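Final report, closing paragraph on structural work. Over the funding period we assembled a curated collection of sequence-structure pairs, and we close with a single example.
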Amino acid sequence: MATAKPWSSLAFRLALSYGGLMVLTMCIVLSVFYVQTVGVVRARLDKQAEIHLRRLMEHSTKYGPAALENEIHQTLRDGVDTDTEIIILMQSDGTPIVGNADLLRTRRLTTMGVRELKVMRAGKVVTGRVGVAELHNGDLLAVGSDMQLQRDMEDLFGQASLLAALAALAMALVGALVFRRVVDERAVDIRSTMARVAAGDLRQRIPTSGREDEFTLLNKDINSMLDRLEQLMEGIRHVSNTIAHNLRTPLTRILLRLRNAQQAPVAEQSATLAAVAQEVAELGVVFDKLLQIAEVESGASRKNFAPVDLKALLIDVLEFYEPLVEDSGGIMRLDTQGEPVALGDGDLIASAVANLVDNAIKYGAVPDSEHGGDVLLRVGMAPEHGAEGAWGVEITVQDKGQGVDPQTMEHMTTRFYRADSDRQGYGLGLASVQAIVQLHGGRLSFHNQHPGLMARIWLPALAA
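Its predicted structure, as stored:
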């Protein structure tokens, strides 16, 4: 839906302001050009007047006043600039002797340079640029040119400048309206899509064109945000459904046990209450893990970020889990490269690695063997995606088990998902790892190594 008033559109105001700035710039340029042009014309008239005045003065000095009058008559009849030139030979009080113009008011003229002078010429009052000189006999000689040509040029230039300014202003206004319409057309898809999303349809996406302009990039960013929003909402629905499903059975079991305990002998009630307490404790563990994941996803832990020595952190993890692996008949090794450092929360990163190691111990046993599997920890610098990706810190946890099938791998980080429902657990460990890695701006991925499964955490390296 288009904006009712053009001025309410930011695009219209910006385009109109830019057009007004261009008009102002054009007016300044035209003004400078006008001043320069008028100055050149005036300088030419002054130069011409000085040359003619000097020539006539030299003629008078050489041949006398009588010859000067003849020269003035000859100059006025030679057909050169006859319609613009002004020549007046006058007495010292301003009474004209010979020439083609008369002073409007008889008076003595000063001889201080070239100036503008109003005279009566051919029955009309005209303004001329004249120079005045005093002859040896005391007479005055005024020589110059009619300024009507300059006046006509000024009027023509002024009219042309006004028309150009009006045309530029009209173009700025039209351009602002067109620019506003183009922006509105590009923004209508965003507004309509966001209106449908606000109505609850999270599957809506903004159409993108093949042009990589600002609106296309904005549309892609909004679509990415909508993808993430839909993913989060799906996660919330899944968690809600899963919690409701998972709580129904233990709560029903607790309720039945409590009802049976009411009718059971006192000796059996203690055992029933102990079993109920165990059930409630397990539910508390589930909610604690969910709260931990929610706290991580909220981003509140970013305020505690600091440089983390990942080599030292993995050594602590190794020392904690190595006895457990050895007790099950396996070997746990750590391979480090360089001195990798990342910006983050050391406790959260250690928790994520510990979850991966714990899964490797649980599911990484060698098939058809009574002994536990080996666990290999690695840490070093590596690109995010292949050789051309951004460089960062890579932490891998690899076991020697059977690996996982592709369908299972897609859901491993989903809350409450368990590939093997017979094993103990709540299906929240890898979801917690995923939340921690995303909090640190990294990536979590899994890769079958044949044999075994490798879990890979990539984190941005700490800038020097």
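The chain has three domains: 12-154, 214-298, 302-460. The longest helix spans residues 10-63. We thank the funder for supporting this effort.
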